[in-house]
Amino acid sequence: MDRKLTQRGEERRGQLMAYATQRFAQNGFHPTSVAEITEGLGVGKGVFYWYFDSKEELLRAILADAQLDLRRRQRAAVSGAASPSDGIEAGLRASMEWSIEHPDYFRLFQFAATDDRFNGGLRKGEQVAVNDAAKVLSAAMDAGEIPDGDATLLSHALLGVNTHLVQQVHRGVLDATDDVIDAAVSFCLHGLLGRPSPR
Amino acid sequence: MDRKLTQRGEERRGQLMAYATQRFAQNGFHPTSVAEITEGLGVGKGVFYWYFDSKEELLRAILADAQLDLRRRQRAAVSGAASPSDGIEAGLRASMEWSIEHPDYFRLFQFAATDDRFNGGLRKGEQVAVNDAAKVLSAAMDAGEIPDGDATLLSHALLGVNTHLVQQVHRGVLDATDDVIDAAVSFCLHGLLGRPSPR
Amino acid sequence: MDRKLTQRGEERRGQLMAYATQRFAQNGFHPTSVAEITEGLGVGKGVFYWYFDSKEELLRAILADAQLDLRRRQRAAVSGAASPSDGIEAGLRASMEWSIEHPDYFRLFQFAATDDRFNGGLRKGEQVAVNDAAKVLSAAMDAGEIPDGDATLLSHALLGVNTHLVQQVHRGVLDATDDVIDAAVSFCLHGLLGRPSPR
Amino acid sequence: MDRKLTQRGEERRGQLMAYATQRFAQNGFHPTSVAEITEGLGVGKGVFYWYFDSKEELLRAILADAQLDLRRRQRAAVSGAASPSDGIEAGLRASMEWSIEHPDYFRLFQFAATDDRFNGGLRKGEQVAVNDAAKVLSAAMDAGEIPDGDATLLSHALLGVNTHLVQQVHRGVLDATDDVIDAAVSFCLHGLLGRPSPR
DNA sequence: AATGAATGAGCTTTCATTCAT
DNA sequence: CATGAATGAAAGCTCATTCAT
To answer: What residue has its CA nearest to the C1' of F10?
Structure first.
């Protein structure tokens, strides 16, 4: 679907994506029908297929957009960091903040992770982020700042903490205060530091 | 569906659940049809509805079974622990081991978490586990073993690490060696210890 | 679709094929919807897909059945012939009679010939019939009964006469009397004989 | 749609018809969408409906054009013939040559013959041609050149041979050499001559 | 003349569920 | 208990056609 869109077309496409994001996040992808989306926007069903090849493609487009936005945020945060460990912390904070600000995207990520049809695109993105983090961790290990360990594994551990805590926030189990982020960051950094070097 | 089942009936029910677990995990819940399940087992569709009220109920039954099994394993592990912190470690290890051993159940948990129709049952179970863990953490805090903090939040952090690393193992990103579990445990324990409390 | 069908199922399948044959022949394949077929029989839409994988498959099944029937008729006619030329005449007559008796099947053959999706199956059948005829013609040539010529081409010429005249009968341009068949046979035989070999 | 078209307009209309002819012949009329045609030409959908009232009308226009062209060719051929039987042969040859040169048109004729919505126009044209031929045949019968018979029926027999052999050429079953036409003509003429009148 | 967007009826197909046997 | 057949709402998607610009 490489249609050249007019200004108006671009807007419609955006509307469809925004509304679908909402419905998919609230109702689930499979239970949300294309008709529900177009009716919700008060347009004909054909409109949908003018802009997207299929319902699947729509979700993929949404996910790609969201990932792009998240990555931009992370990059911006990390690039302003003074030291490697600062970078890790900044990246962590940026991820969590973004995820808390975008509950719908977060939910779609979670769903997409359970479905191989969408998984692919996400995993590549995740891998990039994890690799970035792993590189920083490796550097820190080489510099003796943190004990040696499997940098990839540790990066995933960070991601796990991050993700799960955000999920609890969205579920209302935890409050969306800065404390959650602070606690997560603290937990992660100490987890990385490992056995406090004897003094 | 509180039918009293004969011996043979129990077996059939078990077959249905086992096969469905497989299909749901591999194909997804929505994309897997009831017909696929009954045909896969070579039985008529009536059989399915003799044992389950609906496809939804089937998944709920599978999830309940799985949770029960997981909890049993955790309880057994924790109950044999000498100290609170030993209990935390044992519980963590037990969770990860079970999750690695049961990829299909793990996938279904992940999926169920994204769908409010199934979420409910799981969350109660998760909450119980988290509360158990939080209690131990609180005790450890009171005993000065670990610094004060939000016990619930920390429990979720543990769960996040656990879950995410297992996922990577299932995805083949990480190898299913004991090292993963060791690293996770170490990461978690140090995360909990946080800044070594001044003495 | 290799379902084992009960007696009742076999009947339903037959009903669907018979009714669809009628509708496809009268209305055309594309313009006839599956709904039209099931509604015409007063059954649910699902019934259709219980017996056939798709509308396409249904047509293919109809065509295969029809071809089988036609071939049986031809074989029976030819097998009873005393001489080669008798066989040609008998086959020709059998073809035309069958085609005149089965206007719906005839129409579907005509349509299928215009659509590559259905063409395949038919052409194989046609080729078999043509080859059979060509063999007889070759024999007749060798025996000096008819002048030498391209046996395949001549077989197709016979088929062309046969087919087109039947079409005119169905259209009401020609009357469905034995005269048409007689005339066709005469035309064909003389066409084959060609310039009476000088003696 | 009796729009007066500018020079450029005529060209566009011609482009649309040419491209559609191709697509209809290759893909089939029903399976080819208006969008496919306009996109194939890189023009907007509005263009199509500027020149044609509907997809149906487009096909009718194509068929009418094709018929006109064929008839012109036949008329030219027949008009130059010295004798009635020469005329028959010339007409036959002209038909076959034209049909072999225009596979797309030929295919569309075949398709149109199976659909009552388009059949009408064609049949009138066919009838004219058949009547022309029948008149010549009648004359030949009266003159004792060929045995008496149903002139209309025989004309259709000629048409059948002609049509079917051309089809085989397009299908690659027969080679598009002059031999095919020669053989067809010979077959037809001898078919008409029937039992060589005893002298 | 031409475009891209929009319409919406209608299509093929799926599928959870029910039911006669 | 079990089966195969049936149901029919609803899904995803297509497409001839219209229309504002």
So the answer is: A33
